[in-house]
């Protein structure tokens, strides 16, 4: 079901007051709000304490909550997540930060072999209310291993939720829902748009439900599915194509696991055509899963092949080719136009 316009809030008066925040500021605000609300919430990771994190997403939290709840760890991703799993199993709600998604692979075993399986392995005796935060994606002229977009690897793992916000408002609300979830959540933050724009964000506590997509632009000719940093160039492409008479509906998935199949299919049944935009490599990406879902659930509505507008099947390039690798409005327009005019 697509998102409702009103937040799920504990106090209507809290959400009536707002601050104009960037996405990374909304991360910090979401962490602070949840730590004030629940003493079991702790933040841990490399440089998250006195330094406030590599992107300053935890700035000031150490001063407010102290070293027992804002924990600087060694440079050891497996240890960060493994320790957090133990804390979560015994009732705490740790939020582990991995500095860049390209550094998450040493913790892959802990996430998929332990965090995602703990409830099943223990037959419900233990749960794992753990959040693993990681800035992901390219576009910031970073060195190797700093621009990964391998969300599909984690979506493939049962027992693990995968969330990707694209706006400051959604960031705070989705982070609250992730922290309150009884099961592990991988929370991927599109660092390309950390400081790209601002939005009014309620100062109080509220949730944006996990598993619900948001329709960012309504349209009738083609459904375009995307998430994270690709949402903005996709919306720009849709507006440009409107001048050509192509009316594109843009669906921001927000949660990649579980997918909001209801909204995905309903949009496709309305338009009969689809495109998927993501910066991850094409082969094995989420575009293939979305395409398969449309084939299984709405084949008789289909009027054209589903177009995948993605990164390339290569390691993420360095500076000179970075802009070429990432889908940008002109390439997105070409892909949407191909599907719409088939």
Q: Topology of this protein?
A:
Layout: E1 8-9, H1 12-16, E2 18-21, H2 23-37, E3 41-45, H3 61-65, E4 70-72, H4 77-89, E5 93-97, H5 108-115, H6 118-121, E6 131-136, H7 151-155, E7 161-163, H8 168-180, E8 185-190, E9 199-202, E10 206-207, E11 214-217, E12 222-226, H9 231-242, E13 248-252, E14 255-257, H10 261-271, E15 274-281, H11 286-298, E16 307-311, H12 319-325, H13 329-340
Parallel strand pairs: 3-4, 3-5, 5-6, 6-8, 7-8, 12-13, 12-15, 15-16
Antiparallel strand pairs: 1-10, 2-9, 7-14, 11-13
Protein name: Transketolase
GO molecular function: oxidoreductase activity
Cofactor: thiamine diphosphate
Describe the structure.
It contains 13 helices and 16 strands. It has a seven-stranded mixed beta sheet, sandwiched between helices. The relative contact order is 0.14. The model is unreliable at about 5-15 (pLDDT under 50). With about 350 residues, the protein is of the alpha/beta class. Helix 2 packs parallel to helix 8, helix 4 runs parallel beside helix 5 (about 110-115) and helix 10 crosses helix 11 (about 285-300). It has two domains: about 20-200, Thiamin diphosphate (ThDP)-binding fold, Pyr/PP domains (Rossmann fold); about 215-340, Rossmann fold. The chain is globular.
């Amino acid at each position: 079901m697509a998102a409702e316009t009103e937040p799920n809030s504990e106090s209507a008066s809290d959400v009536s007051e707002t601050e104009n925040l960037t996405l990374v500021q909304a991360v910090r605000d979401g962490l602070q709000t949840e730590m004030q609300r629940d003493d079991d919430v702790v933040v841990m990771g490399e440089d998250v304490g006195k330094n406030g994190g590599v992107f300053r997403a935890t700035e000031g939290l150490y001063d407010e909550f102290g070293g027992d709840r804002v924990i600087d760890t060694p440079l050891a991703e497996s240890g960060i997540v493994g320790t957090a799993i133990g804390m979560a199993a015994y009732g705490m709600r740790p939020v582990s930060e991995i500095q860049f998604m390209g550094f998450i692979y040493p913790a892959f075993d802990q996430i998929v072999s332990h965090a995602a399986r703990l409830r099943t392995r223990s037959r419900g005796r233990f749960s794992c209310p753990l959040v693993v935060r990681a800035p992901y994606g390219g576009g910031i002229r970073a060195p190797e291993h700093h621009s990964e977009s391998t969300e599909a690897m984690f979506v493939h793992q049962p027992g693990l939720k995968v969330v990707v916000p694209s706006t400051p408002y959604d960031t705070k609300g989705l982070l609250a829902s992730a922290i309150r979830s009884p099961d592990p959540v991988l929370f991927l933050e599109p660092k390309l748009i950390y400081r790209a724009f601002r939005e009014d964000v309620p100062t109080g506590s509220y949730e944006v439900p996990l598993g619900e997509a948001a329709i960012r632009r309504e349209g009738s000719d083609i459904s375009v599915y995307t998430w994270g940093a690709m949402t903005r160039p996709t919306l720009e492409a849709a507006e440009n194509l409107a001048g050509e008479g192509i009316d594109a509906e843009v669906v921001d998935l927000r949660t990649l696991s579980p997918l909001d199949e209801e909204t995905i299919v309903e949009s496709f049944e309305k338009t009969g055509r689809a495109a998927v935009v993501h910066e991850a490599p094409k082969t094995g990406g989420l575009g293939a899963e979305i395409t398969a879902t449309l084939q299984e659930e709405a084949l008789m509505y289909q009027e054209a092949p589903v177009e995948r507008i993605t990164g390339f099947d290569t390691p993420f390039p360095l500076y000179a080719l970075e802009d070429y690798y990432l889908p940008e409005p002109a390439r997105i327009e070409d892909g949407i136009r191909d599907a719409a005019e088939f």
